[in-house]
TrEMBL record:
Protein name: SPG16 protein
WD repeats, residue ranges: 25-66, 67-108, 109-148
PANTHER family xrefs: SPERM-ASSOCIATED ANTIGEN 16 PROTEIN, WD40 REPEAT PF20
InterPro entries the UniProt entry points to: WD-F-box_domain-protein, WD40/YVTN_repeat-like_dom_sf, WD40_PAC1, WD40_repeat_CS, WD40_repeat_dom_sf, WD40_rpt
Keywords annotated in UniProt: Repeat, WD repeat
GO CC term (a single one): axonemal central apparatus
GO biological process, one term: axoneme assembly
Pfam families, sorted: WD40
Domain of life: Eukaryota
Organism: Phainopepla nitens (Phainopepla)
Amino acid sequence: IVLTGSDDRLWKTWGFPDGNILLTGEGHTDWLSGCCFRPSGTQLVTSSGDTTVRIWDLSRRGCILTLRGHSRAVRGCSWHSCGDFVASASMDGTSKIWDVNSERCRYTLRGHEESVNSIEFLPFSSTVLTSSADKTLSLWDVRTVSRL
């Protein structure tokens, strides 16, 4: 199964080798910039130009949570390997760590001077890697909200 998101505001899962569409999700009001499966495979996260991050339940075939807090388009998203946290990177110059269970922002990472364009958790750690339009990469310890 492959997951894609696009300018048409939709995410799709595709079966291979046939390439047929298995599921389609709609709900964002602007382009999708990122999408990622939860490590368990039961849910996915999407990020969008509409400034939101959404959690989707594949068995329910719909959005179960919309995370709001960025003031500009969200450029990327990723799941932590434990499946309880989602990270987002935004054109507002911040990144956020979201607690999916409590449905709130746990931390806001500030320090880049321009848009944060991507974010990834390092596997099985509390470290996040961000990249920015300010031509820098940063490693963050999300427990202390500090750069390493």
